[in-house]
Design a protein that fits this description.
Strands 1, 2, 3, 4, 5, 6, 7, 8 and 9 form a nine-stranded mixed β-sheet that branches. Strands 14-13-10-11-12-15 form a six-stranded mixed β-sheet, with helices on both faces. It has 390 residues and is α/β, with parallel strands linked by helices. It is elongated. It contains 14 helices and 15 strands. The chain binds adenosine-5'-triphosphate and magnesium ion (MG). The site of magnesium ion has 4 residues, from loops.
Amino acid sequence: MRSVLIVHYHEISLKRGNRPLFLRHLVRNLERATRDLGPVRVRQLPGRILVELEGHDRPDAVAARVGRVCGVASAALAYRVPSSVDAMKAASAMVIEGRRFASFRISARRAFKTYPLTSVELNRELGAFIVQRTGARVDLREPELAIHVEVLPAETFVYADRVSGPGGLPVGTAGTVAALLSGGIDSPVASWRMMKRGCRVVFVHFHSVPYLPATSQAKARSLVERLTEWQYRSQLFLVPLGEIQREVVLSVPPPARVVVYRRMMVRIAEMLARQTGALALVTGESLGQVASQTLTNIARIDEVAEAPILRPLIGMDKIEITEEAQRLGTFEISIEPDADCCTLFVPRHPATRVGSEEIRAAESRLDIPRLVAMGCEGTRVETFEFPGGA
Ligand code: ATP
Ligand code: MG
């Protein structure tokens, strides 16, 4: 029985003084990610984490969940045996049972260097054993099957199939950010990128109900539900923007409107961020993608923010962003037709360069504090949990 899941991390091992803190978060997130699948025991060993699955009904389901936890570089269901060469051979025999392969490689690693055999010697000894049993040849560069052997003082782990995790840092280690989540393709990817850097993300969605149907809210909910799979608990703030947009339309000339909407979003999101302890805002902007995302207009948007606005997709192409959205499973949700607030009262030709003076003049006719307060007061909060029902 493969009774243990062996979890490797990469970037965390580069942290020196803070490593215990990062590992505590990782352990807790591994527990949270799998809590509905039955009891597991998560144990820290030097350089790796073990998820004990003795007697567990669904080891593969646990492995799949663990393979998606931020901070995990890879995870593999392994056989656990005593650290004797005979036991390692027996475990290797179990790993190859029922598999057909013409070439293979043994990758032995010793987590402590006092083991009587070196890793090269172990590779040779176990390799010879597999050759003898199967007739397969050793191929160090492109083997059909790679068998990993990790030798620790008390026990050895032997496995073949390793799933790659997202890497990065455990959610919760980098503080909280507030992501402006539209129903589009980009902002869910931007949010996920920040989770992967260890942030907890609260979501802020602007809608134009009752001027537009509530479909954008339904999309935002579906997106948050999906993204919660990486951070286990999320809050979604639903902010009414329609009335604010109506007032903007009355006094701001068409070309500058989109930038004014964005500035209003940033002001309101910043107020909400403060309430939730978020230290930065996140958007899905990518340089030059649309009129509001030129360098000039980004500068206009930044002017109204006190907190940093993080734009993890700024240098990415639409194709790259789309591929990532597909991997995350947000793409299918994002492409559903909806009535985003950005389609309400939006001019056909928004300006690509709105000047500082121009925007100040346009906004001088608005009662900004009142509009911000109106947005905040109309905001509703929803909470999401993953796994559900636990
Ligand atoms: P996305 O695919 O994320 O919608 P986009 O390419 O459609 O992005 P814009 O519509 O210009 O670009 O939006 C730029 C950014 O502004 C979005 O990535 C998002 O962070 C924020 N944003 C836009 N509309 C909304 C909204 N209705 N609610 C919250 N944030 C929004
Ligand atoms: Mg959009």
